[in-house]
Amino acid sequence: MAKNDTIGLVANILLIVGGLNILLSEFGYNVIGMIFGSIPMLMTIINVLIGLSALYAIYTNFLK
Prior knowledge:
By secondary structure, the chain is mainly alpha-helical. It is 78% helix and 0% strand. It has helices at residues 6-25, 31-36, 40-63. α1 crosses α3 (40-63). The mean pLDDT is 89.
């Protein structure tokens, strides 16, 4: 990741949040669901952004 790569930084933060959410959901806690549970469309958008972040990480780490 380049020094001024804002997209990479945001992607990494989303991947960390998504990974921790998956880990905690195995113990019965869905943190994203707890925070944004009353707004299902926002949860969907966040999950799509996490997925796009994973694709970006694959691209920058393996295909570039």
